[in-house]
């Protein structure tokens, strides 16, 4: 099982295995304790988890009209 969590410091999404206790945020380097992180979603595999993140993210660059 994989978890989609948000970093308490910078708010970016990360995918972690549900077996880990901590995760270093790839964006700001903050060491997230899984028990204190906000769990956004659960996924059966890493690919599914990344698809969830893609749906959650709403890149302003893509939405902006020229
Ligand atoms: Zn972070």
What features would you describe in this structure?
The chain has 66 residues and is an alpha+beta fold. Helix content is 23%, strand content 33%. It has helices spanning 46-56, 60-63; strands at 2-6, 13-17, 22-24, 31-33, 38-43. A hairpin with a 6-residue loop joins strand 1 and strand 2. Residues 7, 9-10, 12, 25, 27-28, 30 line the site of zinc ion (ZN). This is DUF1922 domain-containing protein. Residues 1-56 form the DUF1922 domain.
The CATH top-level class label: Alpha Beta
CATH architecture: Alpha-Beta Complex
Mean pLDDT: 90
The first-to-last residue Cα distance is 40 Å
**Ions, cofactors and other bound molecules:** zinc ion
Note the main sheet. 3 strands, antiparallel
The largest sheet has its strands arranged as 2-1-5
Write down the secondary-structure element order.
EEEEEHH
Taking pLDDT < 50 over at least 5 consecutive residues as the criterion, the unreliable ranges are none
Structural class: alpha+beta
- Cα radius of gyration in angstroms: 13 Å
Q: Counting H and I runs of at least 4 residues, what is the number of helices?
A: 2
Binned strand content: 25-35%
CATH topology call = Rubredoxin-like
Write down the domain tally: 1
Spatial shape: globular
As a percent range, the share of helical residues equals 10-25%
Strand tally is: 5
